[in-house]
Design goal:
212 residues; mainly alpha; 8 helices; 0% strand; globular
Length: 212
């Protein structure tokens, strides 16, 4: 089963790379499904290989995939709906990480860096967000809390996952509210897929389901 898990992780990476390679050719048929497919797949992996107490992580992946779809669809308030889906995903990740919290000086210092990010993000993004300032402020608060919760677990992988996820969302916000990212738009999805994979790895290392 361990070998099968590794094969599935490779398939996830192939799906993610395929989605990234297709980015310059958007829009193309099924582009939305291709974007969400790697996260749907990693959600399936978490159901298969993570213990039952990790269902919050699985739920986070599912809400993330939902957010991927909503952000791509050309519907009214699509950005708000997508933001809400990702906010819910981060709440799921936060709730799970808080279960593993371990208060000590080292973890507190790591958590402090995420708290500082939250302050800086408010300064940078709230005013340019304009009419979306309130939902953006809520989202910044939640993702900062997710980073703090990941830091308090003491897991370097979880901490890195949170940092990369925050980087991805910050790049997305910069491109939407401040300045177009141009050819660097792909960096949003590179960091996004990497962050989701690191979340899976951080949990898998501790809660791998031993199957007969």
């Amino acid at each position: 089963m361990v070998r099968t898990d590794k094969i599935l992780q490779i398939i996830f990476i192939v799906f993610a790379v395929g989605s990234l390679l297709g980015t310059p050719f958007k829009p193309y048929p099924m582009a939305t499904a291709v974007k969400a497919l790697p996260i749907v797949f990693i959600a399936l992996m978490s159901l298969l290989y993570l213990q039952k107490q990790c269902l919050l992580i699985t739920a986070g992946f599912i809400f993330s995939a939902t957010g991927d779809v909503l952000l791509e669809l050309e519907i009214e308030n699509g950005f708000i709906f997508g933001l809400a889906a990702f906010l819910t995903a981060h709440l799921c990740y936060t709730a799970f990480f808080l279960r593993l919290r371990n208060y000590n000086r080292k973890n507190a210092v790591r958590a402090l860096f995420f708290a500082v990010y939250g302050v800086v993000a408010f300064i940078i993004f709230i005013e340019p967000a304009g009419a979306l300032a309130t939902p953006v402020a809520i989202y910044i608060s939640v993702i900062t809390l997710m980073g703090i919760a990941a830091a308090l677990t003491g897991s370097l992988t979880a901490c890195l996952a949170a940092a990369v996820f925050i980087l991805s969302d910050s790049l997305l916000a910069w491109g939407k509210f401040i300045s177009d990212l141009g050819h660097f738009k792909i960096s949003v999805m590179v960091t996004y897929y990497l962050a989701q994979y690191l979340i899976y790895r951080s949990v898998r290392d501790k809660f791998y389901k031993v199957l007969a």
